[in-house]
Amino acid sequence: MNNFKVKNPRTDLRFEIAFTKAYREAVDSYTHPARIEAACLRAQFPAILHPIQDEDLIAGRFQMGLVGLGIQHQTGGFGFYINEEKVTAELEFKAGSAQYREDLHDLLTYWKGRNTNAVVLRNRPEAIREALPSDLWRTMPLPASPILRMAGAYIDFDKLVKIGLPGLAAEVDGYRKKAAENGGDVELFEAMLDVIALIGEVCLHYEKQARLLAMEAKDEGRREELERMAQSLAAIQAAPPKSLLEALQLVWIYGVMAPLIEFGRLDVYAGDLYVRDLASGIITEEGAVALVESLFRLIDHLDCETDGRVIVGGYGRRNPENADRMCLVAIEACRRVKEVLPQFTLRFNDSTPKPVWDAAMRCIEEGRTYPLLYNDEVLVPGVMKAFGVDRARAETYMPLGCGEIELDHYSFGTPSGSLNTLKILELAIRGGYEPMTGQQVGPATKPLVACASYGEFLTEYRKHLDYYVHAQAIFEKYEYEITGRMHPFMMVTMLYDGCLERGKAVFNGGCAFLGGTLEMYGNVNAANSLSAIKRLVFDEKTMSAEKMVEAMDRNFVGRHAELKLMRNAPKYGNDDDYVDSIFVSLHDYLNDSIKEQAPKVGLDSYLGVTINNAQNTTLGRWVGATPDGRKAGTPMANANNPAPGTDKNGVTAMLNSILKPRHDNHAGMVSNIRFTRELFTESRGKMHGLIKNYFDRGAAHAMISVVGKDDLRNAMQRPAEYRDLIVRVGGFSARFVDLKKDVQQEIYDRVTY
C-alpha cells in the first residue's frame, strides 16, 4: 500500500529531486557501491523522517519517497527505485513552478533505465526470457513471473541490542583493519562505519526533537514520556541498551533506516531487559505493554500489508522464562492495537505455558486474526529436513511476509518468483497453446485429447511444471548475483551471519546460507481439476476430453450438463482420499522438483511456498475456465485451503484434508480458517479443544479469523459501519472494507464454520 500513516505527509517531490541529485553526485564521485549507498542513505535520512506524534513512546516515523533506496516494494521499491506512475501523476495533475516541472521530467527520464528493476530485467539470462517474458503478472496471462525484490531480511537484532551501536562500530572497525592487512575490501568497511555514524546522527535528530517537545508539553505525563524518550535516544548513541525502552528504540531506528519490515523475535531481544526493568522498578507490566503498543503502532504505520512480522515463542530462545513473560506483554499489546500490523506470530510447542496459550486464544477470539499460530513440534523437524540443517539451526526458523520460512540472521530466501500451477495446467491441457492470446507458450506437448491415460497426461503436465520451475531457479540465482554487484545493503550486511567474517556484502558472497523460495498459486484448483479429468475422462469415461475442452473454451455457456459433472467431481477439503491424494501428489512433486534445483543453480536451498495473498484472485483473472468447474477469470483457492464453497462435509473433514500434506519438503504453507464469533462465544471450550486437537494431529500452522455471522455481508453493503472489521486474506490481514471488491467477494464466498 505504501501510504505511510503520518499526520502531515509530504505534498511535493522535492525530496525525490534532491535524492536524484545526491545519487548523481555519488556515482560521479565514487566507484564502490558501498560508498554510493552511504551517500544515498545520507540523502534519505533524516530527509524522509517525520516528527514524533502525540501518541508515540518510541521515536521514528518516516515516509519513503517515490524515488529512493529500498529493498522491496513495501520499503518504497527494490534497490534504487522510482514509482513512475505516481511521479507522472504529479506532472499531470499537480501544480508547480517551471523549474519544479523541469526537474520532474528530468527525474523520470534519468531513472527510466537506471532503476534497479529495469537493470535486473534488462540483463536477465537469454535462456529464461521465453519462460519469464515479463513481471507484469497483474495484467498479463503469465504462467510464471519473476518478482523483483529482496524480501525478508531478518537481521541479528539480539546482537544489536547486546553490543549496541558502539560495539557494532568497534566490530566493523576490527574487520576493516584485518581487510587492510590482508588486501580485503577496506572501502566496504569504511562505508559501514559512515552508516553507523549516520544512525547515531538520526538518534541525535530525534533526541533534540523529543527534548524540545518535552519543554513545550503542557501535560506532565506527556512531558515525562518525552524526557524518557530523549534519554533513551541519547543513551543508545553511547552504549548498548540497558532498558526495554532503549532496546525497542534502537531496534526501531535501525530497522527504519535499513529499511526493514520484519522485526524478529521480540521476546528474545527484549525479554531479559523487560524482566530486569520490572525487578528494579524501572517499569511496570502496564508500562511495558504501552511501550510495545507504541512499537506495534509504528510497525502498522509502515502500511506494508504482507510483512511487518513480530515473532514470539517457540524453541531456541536464550531464556525461556523471561521470554514467556515478554510473550504475555506482546500478546496483550497485540490485543489492544486493533490494526492490521504487525503480523504478530506465536511459535508454540509442548512446553508453551498455559497462560501464553490462553492469552493467544483470547486475542484470536476477539477477532484480531492474531497471533498467527506456528507449531514447532511439526515445523522444527520439517525445517531440519527441508533446509538440511541441524536442530539448533532449525529452531531459529522465522516465517516472513506471507509465511515463507527463513533462518534468523543466517539464511536469506527471498521469494523472487511466482508459479501459477492452474494456468500451467490450462496450457498443458492444450499442449502449450494459450487460449487468451492465441499463442504457443512454453513447451509443445501432447494435449489432453491425445492422451490415452491419466498417467500419460500427468506426465505431460509435469513437463510444463518442470520448465517453469527450472527457469525460476535460474532467475533466483541471477537476481542475487546482479543485486549483489549493485547493492551492498550495508545495514543488513552488518548483522547477517557470515558477512563481516567474509568481508563481503550479503548478496555478494557474504550471506552464510543463500537460499530462495518460489511462490505457488492454484495448487488446490489444479488438484481439483486433475481429479475431474481422472474421474470423468479416464475412470468413468462419462465425458470425452474433447467435450471437456470445448466446454471450457465456451466458459460453460450452453454446457450446463458438462459444468454440473465437473463441479460434482471430488473436491479437496472434504476428507476424500480420491482428490486429496492427487493434491498431496502434486504438492510433493512440485516441492521436490523445486528443491532439486538448488544444487543445479548454485543455491544453498531452493524451496516451494504455498502462502497465498490476494494473488489467488489477481492471478485467477488470467486463467480461463478449468476442469473443476471454475469459470474463467474467477479466483483460485487461497493457499492450502479448499476452493470457496467446495468444502461441504464440515470443519472436521476440512481439517482432515489440510492435515494430509507434508511439511518437510517446503518453506511454508499456510491454512486460513474462519469461524463465526457466535460459535466461539457459545462453544468456547469445544473450539479451543478443536484447535488443540488439530495441532496435536500434526498441523503446522493456522491463521484464524473470527467474525460475526453476518458481518462480512453487512460490511459489503455498509462499509462505513465496519471500519474495524479485520479479516485474514491469505498471507496477510486487512481491514475488510479496504479490500478490492473481487477480493471481498472471494473472502465472503469461503466457508465459515
Overview of the structural elements:
Helix 6 runs antiparallel to helix 7 (186-216), helix 10 (266-280) packs across helix 12 (320-336) and helix 16 (421-429) packs across helix 17 (454-486). The model has no long low-confidence stretch (mean pLDDT 95). The chain folds into three domains: 14-128, no CATH class; 129-148 and 410-639, no CATH class; 264-381 and 671-753, no CATH class. The protein has 31 helices and 22 strands. The chain has a six-stranded mixed sheet. The protein has a four-stranded mixed sheet with strand order 5-13-17-18. With 753 residues, the chain is an alpha/beta fold. The radius of gyration is 26 Å and the shape is globular.
Helix and strand topology:
Blueprint: H1 14-29, H2 33-44, E1 49-50, E2 61-62, E3 67-70, E4 79-82, H3 84-93, H4 98-111, H5 116-122, E5 144-146, H6 157-182, H7 186-216, H8 220-238, H9 244-257, E6 262-265, H10 266-280, H11 285-301, E7 309-313, H12 320-336, E8 343-348, H13 354-365, E9 372-375, H14 376-387, H15 391-394, E10 397-400, E11 404-407, E12 411-412, E13 415-420, H16 421-429, E14 433-434, E15 439-440, H17 454-486, H18 490-493, H19 499-502, H20 506-510, E16 513-514, E17 517-521, H21 523-539, H22 545-553, H23 560-568, H24 577-595, H25 597-601, E18 607-609, H26 615-618, H27 651-658, E19 672-676, H28 677-682, H29 684-696, E20 701-707, H30 711-717, E21 726-728, E22 733-735, H31 741-749
Parallel strand pairs: 6-7, 7-8, 8-9, 12-16, 13-17, 17-18, 19-20
Antiparallel strand pairs: 1-2, 3-4, 5-13, 9-20, 10-11, 14-15, 21-22
